Structure formats: structure tokens, C-alpha cells
Amino acid sequence: MSLQPAVNQQTGKLFPSKNKNMLQIGFFILIFLLGSIPFGLLISRYLLKIDIRKQGSGNIGMTNVMRVGGRLPGVLTFVMDFGKGCLSILSAQNFFSTSEMDQETQLIFHTLAGITVVCGHVFSIFLHFKGGKGISTLFGVLAILHLNVCIFAALTWASMFLWKRISSLSGIIMLAVLPWLFLLVPWAQEEKPVISIFILFILLSSLLIYKHRENILRLLKGQEEQLKSNRNL
Fold first, then answer.
1. What pLDDT, on a 0 to 100 scale, did the predictor assign at position 14?
2. 8 A C-beta contact, residue 130 and residue 121
3. Burial grade of 111 (CB within 10 A; 0-12, 13-18, 19 or more)
4. Cβ–Cβ < 8 Å for 52, 134
5. How far is CA 53 from the centre of its chain?
6. Given CA atoms 192, 197, 203, 207 in this order, what sign does their dihedral have?
């Protein structure tokens, strides 16, 4: 009877766990890089031949691109930023689809992927950790993560926009409402809300509202412009 060395007995347990953790870290790095792609900047540079950071509010998001360049560049920016959010959740659903995780844990990982892609957009590594406000990408995340929440969030944004025609105000109000939808929508469906998801969206909404701080100051001074494109592209 031969005894196996203790190191060999532990190797099979240690390395798969380490490899799994490294793969998860690598996944979130890739999601952050995906979020960092500045589609508004690329679209304005190649379609409009301008640097959108030097035009209008200087933001690379849909609102500034549309205001400066017209509807087509603005819509394209929204679609691409929205797509980043969708892709992050779809990728997470595929990556974390394992029997080792319960459904709630998987949902938390999916949510973390969505938060990561939004943070990548807001703190783009390709723009020295500067970026957009994250609303379009956030809607892409919500559309796949929780469609019912997305619908109510979109209705909140649209209602405020139809009233005031100010995109930033619509986004701020939507962000203030969003975390509570993760409590109210499950409750209305007679389901148990996931408190950790609620807390994560409290943190994300707070960050994105902070990113709107200059807009908030202009709103308080009555200086925030309505969304009107300067060109008819």
C-alpha cells in the first residue's frame, strides 16, 4: 500500500479553484473593457469628422452627439451603448450558467457584470478614465437583466422627457426611482425581492447621479438646455 504525497492530494482541489477565480477576474476585466469603448467619440470622429469632447457639453453620450450632430449619429450612439449593456448581461448569463451556483447567486453575478460595463462606460480606460453618463448602457443592462424593471424605468424617463424635454433631468429622476423598482416590481408580481440587488443598484444610481452633478447645477440655475439637435442627419 503506497501513500500519495499530501501535495498531490490537495492539488486537484486547489488549482481548479484558482483557475476559476482567475477566469472570473478575466471575465470582469473584459466586460470593463467592453464598457470602455467610446462609441459616441468614434461615431462623431468618423461620421461627423469632429471630436465630440470639444463640442457642446463635451460629453460622449447620445444626448450631446445628437445635439451637436443630429439624429442619426445620436441614435447610432444610443444603439451601440445600449448594445454594450445587453452584451454584458448575455455574456454573464452564459459564463455563470453553472449548477454550482444557485439562482440568486447567478443573478448577483449578472448584476455585477452590468454594473461593471456601466462603470467601464463612465470611467473609460481608453479616455483616461473619463466617459459618458451611463444611461444608455444602463438601459441595455436592464433590458436583459430585468425587462419589467426596464419598462418602468423607461416610462419614468420618457414621462419626464415629454414634460420638460431635458434629457439630463429625465435621467436623474429615473436613477432616483430605479433602485426602488427592484423592490416594487417583484412585490407587485408576488415575488421575493433580492435585497442585495437593490443595494447594488442604490450604489450604481448614486454614482451615476453624482456623474450628473454639473447637470444638476445647471438645472438649479435654470441653464440646462432642452434636447434639440442642431443638424438634421
1. 44
2. no
3. buried
4. no
5. 20
6. negative
The model's pTM is: 0.89
Burial state string for 19-49 with b = 16 or more CB within 10 A and e = fewer than 16: eeeeeeeebbebbbebbbbbbbbbbbeebbe
For 157, the grid coordinates are 424617463
> How much is the pLDDT for 225?
83
In 3D, which of 168, 162, 159 has the Cα closest to residue 212?
A: 168
Q: CB burial class (10 A; 0-12, 13-18, 19+) of residue 233?
A: middle
Residue 233, pLDDT score: 47
pLDDT at 2: 44
Question: Which stretches of the chain drop beneath a pLDDT of 70?
Answer: 1-17, 99, 229-233
Helix axes 71-95, 62-69, angle to 10 degrees: 160
| pLDDT number for residue 97 | 80
CA-based end-to-end distance of the chain: 81
